[in-house]
């Protein structure tokens, strides 16, 4: 600490990420697509390799050393996630293969067993398709109404519209992003929870982006469900997390049937295992759980406060630099935003712009970023998205701004 400011040495941190040292088309790699999937530090790569080399076996089922070691590693990952989220108990942590799978689990299990036809699910215009399509599917199969809360011109959640959509008491569940993957908007989650609960509805927060950039305390947020994914948090693909209040998980029926989720099976019946096992059918993502544990240890050793302070500096710097690029359109101007910037240039299709940036070593996303309703809301076909990680530097942002300015001249 220096005068209360968390210490953050980005140059040292970058040394932990082997991929960042490579060249792309003869240029230093400038990786600005961490919002899609973040790069992996040696600590995560090493933990997964050691697991495969020294302690791999299936979990929960073997009365031999390797299985016992693997089971302990898998359950240690669950405890790490519980600590990361400040869950009341590790039993509230369910491993899935992604945030998408976690939301689908809630939609199929809670949505079909607790919500009733005629009730409504409330989402927002800024949701990722993963927090939109499952509720459309529930609407079509189960008779649930889907309501959509507006987003303001600045990219904020319209809280007055949120209140209005809840007013008749028919909404059983609100499913809202904690941080937009396009606008960078960080939604006022605690305030949203108070509003939603005042109307006797439950709240699911999609933390796929937020959990990477902000300290998440599910008890302080007072939400009912929270989801995030490993691969955006510097961990591996193939593992996600559903956190839910224990009483809700105990009410919900299993989503998938098979091994490890049962207590007893007969020829004509089954009894599911206790929470969380009843939601983890089949062989789970064992190695991936170990990688997620290592990723959580990695960011916690750096300190989430230090990571957040670093990102705030990056966001302020990017706002100044990108706003100075003539003709550049930046989606969203929320008061509280993270390191996600969706931009467009006149006369330039997003794919062409991304290709041009790639020629100078800059990796950005192009398209609609699994958020078509949001792009429709802002009347734009597609955008290029630059998203930051803890290894992003101000110099890389400067380089991006210079490249965008040259691209503006190129496209005329």
TrEMBL record:
It catalyses: (sulfur carrier)-H + L-cysteine = (sulfur carrier)-SH + L-alanine. PANTHER family: CYSTEINE DESULFURASE, CYSTEINE DESULFURASE 1, CHLOROPLASTIC. The keyword Metal-binding does not apply. It comes from the Bacteria. Gene3D superfamilies: Aspartate Aminotransferase, domain 1 (3.90.1150.10), Type I PLP-dependent aspartate aminotransferase-like (Major domain) (3.40.640.10). Residues 30-400 form the Aminotransferase class V domain. Transmembrane segments: none annotated. PROSITE patterns: AA_TRANSFER_CLASS_5. Pfam families: Aminotran_5. Keywords: Pyridoxal phosphate, Transferase. Its EC number is 2.8.1.7. Belongs to the class-V pyridoxal-phosphate-dependent aminotransferase family. Csd subfamily. One of its GO terms (molecular function) is cysteine desulfurase activity. GO terms for biological process: cysteine metabolic process. It comes from Teichococcus oryzae. Its cofactor is pyridoxal 5'-phosphate. Catalyzes the removal of elemental sulfur and selenium atoms from L-cysteine, L-cystine, L-selenocysteine, and L-selenocystine to produce L-alanine. The keyword Transferase applies. This is Cysteine desulfurase.
């Amino acid at each position: 600490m220096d005068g209360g400011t968390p210490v953050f040495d980005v140059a040292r941190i970058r040394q932990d990420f082997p991929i960042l040292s490579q060249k792309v088309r003869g240029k230093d790699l400038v990786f600005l697509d961490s919002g899609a999937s973040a790069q992996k530090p040696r600590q995560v790569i090493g933990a997964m390799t050691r697991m495969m080399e020294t302690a791999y076996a299936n979990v929960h089922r073997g009365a031999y050393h390797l299985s016992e070691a693997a089971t302990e590693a898998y359950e240690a990952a669950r405890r790490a996630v519980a600590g990361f989220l400040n869950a009341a108990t590790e039993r509230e942590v369910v491993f899935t293969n992604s945030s998408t799978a976690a939301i689908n689990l809630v939609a199929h299990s809670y949505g079909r067993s607790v919500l009733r036809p005629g009730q409504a699910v409330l989402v927002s215009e800024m949701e990722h398709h993963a927090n939109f399509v499952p509720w459309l599917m529930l609407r079509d199969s189960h008779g649930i109404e889907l309501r959509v809360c507006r987003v303001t011109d600045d990219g904020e959640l319209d809280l007055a519209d949120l209140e209005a959509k809840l007013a008749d008491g028919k909404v059983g569940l609100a499913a809202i992003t904690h941080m937009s993957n396009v606008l960078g908007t960080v939604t006022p989650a605690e305030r949203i929870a108070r509003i939603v609960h005042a109307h006797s509805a439950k709240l699911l927060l999609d933390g796929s982006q937020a959990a990477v950039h902000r300290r998440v305390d599910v008890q302080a947020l007072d939400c009912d469900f929270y989801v995030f994914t490993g691969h955006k948090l510097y961990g591996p693909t193939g593992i996600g997390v559903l956190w839910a209040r224990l009483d809700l998980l105990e009410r919900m029926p299993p989503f998938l049937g098979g091994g490890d989720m049962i207590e007893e099976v007969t020829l004509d019946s089954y009894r599911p295992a206790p929470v969380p096992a009843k939601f983890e059918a089949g062989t789970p993502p064992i190695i991936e759980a170990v990688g997620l544990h290592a990723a959580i240890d990695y960011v916690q050793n750096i300190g989430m406060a230090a990571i957040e302070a670093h990102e705030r500096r990056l966001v302020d710097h990017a706002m100044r630099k990108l706003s100075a690029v003539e003709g550049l359109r930046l989606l969203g101007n929320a008061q509280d935003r993270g390191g996600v910037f969706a931009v467009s240039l006149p006369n330039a299709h997003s794919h062409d712009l991304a290709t041009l940036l790639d020629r100078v070593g800059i990796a950005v996303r192009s398209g609609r970023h699994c958020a078509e309703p949001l792009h429709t809301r802002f009347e734009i076909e597609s955008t290029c998205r630059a998203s930051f990680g803890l290894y992003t530097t101000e110099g890389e942002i400067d380089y991006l701004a210079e490249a965008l300015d040259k691209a503006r001249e190129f496209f005329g």
